[in-house]
């Protein structure tokens, strides 16, 4: 008993010492809740949910206040009352490696060992009730609790909430983590040696999920159809795309902060999705929004985004004319899937044409030869595809190559050691990219992020995720072991959900680096020029996650199935110089739909099933439309029995074309024995018209015969449904011809024989079996003498005359 009492007494003394000597020990707290990892977040926060609203200052500089203040709220999300709710602020050790920009946010709370005191928030928090809090700690203090920050760096902070749920004991019920970047400690000596500046390159993406309705062929008059009208909201004032463009507009040196913004503009390159640009251009005139994505040509309503699209596009033209622009692969297409399909036309749409589309719509000359895959990774096959498309540089996460090192450029090893077409990779930090991808209303974890630092983003507030991004962007300029010649490539995700304020905050943080001399601009063009000496070759090493995030095999197979059908149809369509509707223009939307079905957009968000459904619907609609196009060309059934006047009479058929463009067809005939149909060759059918086909035929049979007719392309692909024609000829066929010839020969023989006997004055033996009155020379048996009797009488008369 004495030993136990002594232990309790010692514990009380230690707690008292901790209270009067801050910084020497960690204040006590309740039993720890699960750590902030992907697995634990699925079970944490059963009672309370803590959310951070503001961090002031968001970036600590030499001119900042010396106190950090965090505000937020705690909400009871459980099924019972929670009592004695208290919060406090804690800090972990500063980040020393870029990977810690993510891994430090998954540490157990015990690693956040620099702490402040718990502050009571409320004695009782009922179900559904919430309370706001405000916590403040000085950066450093010799006499009071503080964050203990004395030098620049990026520091992980944690807000911890404890409480006692009904029917339970005191426990840590939730926490929220974020990064605090410190570019300079307030009051630091002005003669402190600055770190070497960072050569900084910034990509600024403008992209959106594909929104064109699938399965609609090209037209010169019909308005474009969209699946939804949310793009109009994004382009309008306060929308996502409006905010991303407005943030860049605010950096115009002529209207803002001069030299620093000039440096920001020099270091930044707009990365624009040509599919978004083409859609916005179409929205500047009348467009429709379909009621059902599964019926793209069905009921639709008028779109409302024309004014917003027109204004946004004009603003973009102005900005794009003042800075670097690079075209993204169309519709964030999965380059690995494209490489698997390996279709030259799709590859051209996705990789070759985007720069031309961007240049035409914006009236600029974009930077060529650079490809930025949406996944940030390349497979060897995809790298070969990129090479074949003429690109010399690809923008990749450093995790996409083995042993990337500090160099911003890596030479991708080709299929042979002496690859005549090398591909360089501009490498960006995956931790920075991951932090930027988590910003905004639709956070995502990129495919290139290693599994060890992947965790659920849903429980972090938008403010906390923005703090993480600011810390990641600034880390390279405040890292403790800053080497000379370092560089930073800042690459947000292509489909970035950052709002207007968040986008401005990111740009302002980079501008602050230029202002302080911690960074210098490095244009993208400088990184993509041929490096001398050439960087060492690296092998591609795409993370496994990039495979599972990619377009699934069944979608790739469905796309591959439709390509030859579209190509065959395109080869059959007729180019009319007098018509602006060409075969290419007519079928281009369908090929574009196949590229859009390979998009990686939204495959890494909170609900990847949306992308799966959209891809499947899109490729199915293309298949349905291609079926309808083939069925629009057909042979018209004559009906009834087709009777030929003779065995060589031609068949007359009608071929109809309901397409708005002419088509060349061939007649495919399936006929039984005895029917010989002559091939009429290729026949051109006019747009939305018909033509009579005169088909030479020879039929040696008088029976009713069934002949099947169908129209095909030159490659043998069938148009429409075949028809069956019942044919009957008035000819009796070969057997009848033989019988007729034999009968004729017999008749000639018998007639010749009779004439022969008559010429010789002999009776025909064939008449011997006849009765006298039936023999030739009698008519009805009376009054007619035979030839023999008549000849005898004449001889008697002649005798008498001579006498």
What do you see in this structure?
Pfam families: DUF6049. The protein is α/β, with parallel strands linked by helices and 803 residues long. The chain has five domains: 31-182, ntegrin, alpha v. Chain A, domain 3 (Immunoglobulin-like, Sandwich); 198-554, TIM Barrel; 555-631, no CATH class; 633-731, Immunoglobulin-like; 740-802, no CATH class. 33% of the residues lie in helices and 23% in strands. The chain has 22 helices and 31 strands. Strands 3, 4, 5, 7 and 8 form a five-stranded antiparallel sheet that branches. Strands 9, 11, 14, 19 and 20 form a five-stranded parallel sheet that branches. A five-stranded mixed sheet has the order 15-16-18-17-21. Strand 15, helix 12 and strand 16 (393-397) form a beta-alpha-beta unit. The longest helix is centred in the C-terminal third of the chain and has 27 residues, at 733-759. The relative contact order is 0.09.
């Amino acid at each position: 008993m004495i030993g136990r009492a002594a232990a309790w007494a010692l514990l009380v003394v230690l707690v008292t010492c901790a209270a009067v000597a801050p910084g020497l020990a960690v204040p006590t707290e309740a039993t720890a809740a699960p750590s902030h990892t992907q697995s634990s977040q699925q079970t944490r926060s059963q009672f309370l949910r803590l959310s951070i609203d503001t961090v002031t200052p968001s970036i600590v500089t030499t001119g900042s206040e010396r106190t950090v203040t965090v505000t937020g709220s705690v909400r009871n999300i459980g099924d019972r009352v929670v009592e004695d709710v208290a919060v406090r602020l804690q800090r972990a050790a500063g980040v020393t490696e870029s990977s810690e920009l993510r891994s430090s946010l998954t540490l157990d709370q015990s690693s956040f060992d620099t702490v402040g005191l718990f502050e009571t928030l409320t004695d009782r928090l009922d179900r559904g009730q919430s309370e706001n809090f405000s916590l403040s700690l000085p950066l450093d203090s010799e006499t009071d609790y503080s964050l203990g920050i004395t030098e620049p760096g990026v520091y992980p902070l944690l807000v911890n909430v404890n409480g006692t749920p009904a029917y339970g004991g005191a426990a840590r019920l939730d926490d929220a983590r974020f990064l605090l970047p410190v570019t300079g400690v307030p009051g630091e000596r002005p003669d402190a040696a600055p770190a070497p500046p960072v050569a900084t390159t910034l990509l600024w993406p403008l992209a959106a999920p594909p929104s064109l309705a699938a399965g609609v062929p090209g037209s010169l008059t019909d308005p474009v159809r969209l699946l939804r009208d949310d793009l109009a909201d994004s382009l309008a004032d306060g929308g996502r795309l409006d905010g991303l463009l407005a943030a860049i507009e605010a950096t115009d040196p002529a209207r803002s902060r001069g030299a620093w913004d000039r440096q920001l503009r020099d270091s930044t390159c707009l990365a624009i999705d040509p599919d978004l640009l083409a859609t916005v251009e179409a929205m500047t005139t009348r467009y429709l929004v379909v009621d059902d994505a599964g019926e793209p040509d069905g009921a639709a309503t008028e779109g409302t985004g024309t004014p917003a699209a027109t204004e946004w596009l004009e603003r973009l033209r102005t900005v794009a004319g003042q800075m670097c622009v690079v075209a993204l692969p169309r519709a964030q297409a999965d380059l690995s899937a494209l490489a698997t399909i390996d279709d030259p036309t799709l590859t051209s749409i996705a990789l070759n044409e985007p720069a031309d589309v961007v240049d035409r719509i914006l009236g600029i000359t974009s930077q060529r030869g650079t490809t930025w895959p949406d996944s940030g990774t390349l497979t060897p096959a995809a790298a070969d595809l990129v090479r074949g498309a003429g690109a010399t540089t690809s923008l990749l996460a450093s995790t996409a190559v083995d042993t990337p090192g500090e160099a911003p450029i890596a030479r991708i090893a080709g299929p042979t050691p002496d690859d005549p077409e090398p591909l360089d990779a501009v490498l960006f930090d995956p931790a920075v990219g991951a932090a930027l991808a988590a910003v905004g209303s639709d956070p995502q974890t990129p495919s290139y992020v290693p599994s060890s630092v992947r965790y659920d983003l849903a429980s972090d507030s938008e403010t906390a995720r923005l703090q993480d991004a600011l810390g990641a962007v600034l880390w390279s300029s405040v890292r403790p072991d800053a080497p000379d010649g370092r560089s930073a490539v800042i690459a947000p995700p292509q489909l970035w959900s950052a709002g207007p304020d968040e986008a401005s905050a990111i740009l302002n943080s980079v501008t602050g680096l230029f202002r302080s001399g911690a960074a210098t601009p490095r244009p993208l063009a400088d990184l993509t020029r041929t490096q001398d000496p050439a960087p060492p070759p690296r092998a591609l090493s795409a993370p496994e996650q990039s495979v599972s995030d990619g377009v699934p095999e069944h979608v790739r197979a469905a796309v591959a199935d439709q390509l030859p059908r579209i190509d065959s149809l395109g080869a059959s369509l007729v180019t009319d110089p007098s018509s602006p509707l060409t075969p290419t223009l007519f079928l281009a939307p369908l090929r574009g739909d196949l590229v859009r079905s390979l998009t990686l957009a939204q495959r890494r968000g909170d609900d990847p099933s949306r992308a799966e459904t959209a891809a499947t619907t899109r490729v199915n609609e293309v298949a349905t439309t291609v079926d309808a196009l083939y069925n629009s060309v057909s042979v018209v059934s004559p009906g009834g029995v087709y009777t030929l006047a003779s065995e060589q009479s031609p068949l007359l058929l009608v071929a109809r074309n309901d397409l708005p463009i002419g088509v060349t067809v061939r007649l495919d005939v399936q006929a039984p024995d005895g029917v010989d149909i002559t091939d009429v060759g290729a026949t051109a059918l006019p747009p939305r018209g018909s033509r009579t086909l005169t088909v030479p035929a020879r039929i040696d049979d008088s029976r009713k015969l069934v002949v099947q007719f169908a129209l095909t392309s030159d490659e043998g692909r069938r148009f429409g449904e075949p028809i069956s024609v019942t044919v009957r000829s008035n000819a009796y066929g070969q057997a009848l011809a033989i019988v007729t010839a034999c009968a004729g020969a017999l008749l000639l023989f018998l007639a010749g024989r009779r004439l022969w006997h008559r010429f010789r004055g002999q009776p025909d033996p064939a008449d011997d079996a006849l009765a006298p009155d039936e023999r030739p020379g009698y008519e009805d048996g009376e009054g007619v003498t035979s030839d023999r009797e008549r000849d005898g009488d004449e001889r008697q008369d002649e005798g008498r005359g001579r006498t």
